[in-house]
Amino acid sequence: MRSRPRPGHARATLTVLATTASSLVLLAPTAQAAPGGKSPQAPHPDRPAIACEALKARAFAPANATVTEATSVPASSTAPATCQVTLTVSDPEDGGKVTVWVHMPERTWNGRYQAVGGGGFSGGDPGRLAGAVQQGYAASATDAGHVGSSGTFGLNPDGTPNHTGREDFGHEGVHDMAVAAKSVVTTFYGRAPEYSYWNGCSTGGRQGLMEAQNYPDDFDGIFAGAPVINFPEMQTGQIWGQIVMLQENNPVPACKFETALKAAVAACDTVGDGVVDGVIGDPFACDFDLTTLIGTETACGTITAKDVAVMQRIHEGPRGTDGRFLWYGLPYGAPYAGLHNTKLDDQGQLVGDPFIYDIWWIRYFLTDDPSFDWRTLDYASFEGLFDLAVERYGDMMGASDTDLSAFRDSGGKLLMWHGAADFGVTVKGTVDYYERLEERFGEGTDDFARLFLAPGVGHCSGGAGPELTNGFGALVEWVENGTAPATLDAAKAGVTRPVCAYPLVAEWTGFGDWRDGSNFECVAGTRMELRQP
């Protein structure tokens, strides 16, 4: 296993680094492309320093990087002329190999480098680079050591644990990518990028946090959406609702969950923002009483006290057999669908239907048994797997270390955001991390790290709430011009809204159209109470 340096020196241009609703887990959408804005350098006036195809004959850092393809792709109606490079980075210590893709505009480079993360169990892919390249960035992605989004790579074909693949996915693959990509960019243009950025959501958000924690000199700015912080806890905890329904012998049909979701939103609609818009503006201030639903008729039956008990435990989150806190649950306003699905079996009986990522995680990372039946789990064995996950993967892929001193001291900026109605990666985990940052760094936290919660937004996108329109651009402005964002712009279906820095929330002033974000101001919101295992 490669060591993970924790340098605290001035940012180097070429460095060694480590690191995609989920988890997840979830397949995150392509990360936001950066905007235009002031370029740190004027675009190169002539051709790059060497021809694209000549890169195949060059050597790059790290020494074990090999270019397998370098192709100049002509401009199209949607993309500039681009040099597209594929590399393989081998690890002489454990035999691991990661694929790295580097796409570089041949005439419109803005002097910056942007690495784009993956989603779910995918480390990343070249299809995510188009937006960054269109904006003038030299961009890269990596498969983090395996092809595709399936979690089956956790075991080798012979059934033994794939420790190398797990570590590459956990952090090493992204580190290899950053080193190799920066080397390629510098060789191609004849000069190093002046600014380097990370852009990712879900798994990509986790990858960015791993970078800040373990390789603080790799990126000047990190844009981390719905980051899968405390990955072992979050990923294992995703199946909690299914365990509850199984053990209580009460699989809850979808329409009952949907009724509960609508009731919670209706009850707390004006909380925080002061308007009726189908969005809970301050989710931690919503204390909906689920017991008021008992006896409610739905298309799939009457909501019972047993149904409500299941819902309450889903919102409470995973707990040990002695009641100890394990992880956070679902906030009110976030959909139950996705993690708490049910279906009819061959006998026509309603049964649980877990998220496939949860099944992969348990089979290929925890039990190391591809045929393991999740239905054999009870509360005690679930708790055992939970503790195993934390012990085995906390350091490798947990992204929970709050010691960002080196990242801060090197001038790095961390902009995190999370949809408050994320069904898969609970927003509470991200708030937990940020509040622990505040405990460590005090009032100086927001000098280098800020968190924004988007009310009503789902996992990386979607949901009833306005979505971020230029969050990455705010990070660029912060890094290059020192303008720290107090709000991020969001919009959807003719509605605009400022997204305030946590713990502030956007409240309607009471004057003007509530659909116009200029009629809102940031006010004190409700802080989440930290819990400890």
Automatic annotation (TrEMBL):
Signal peptide: 1-33
Annotated InterPro entries: AB_hydrolase_fold (IPR029058), Tannase/feruloyl_esterase (IPR011118)
UniProt source species: Blastococcus saxobsidens
Record has Lipid biosynthesis as a keyword: no
MF GO annotations: carboxylic ester hydrolase activity; metal ion binding
Superkingdom of source: Bacteria
SUPFAM superfamilies on file: alpha/beta-Hydrolases
Protein name: Tannase/feruloyl esterase
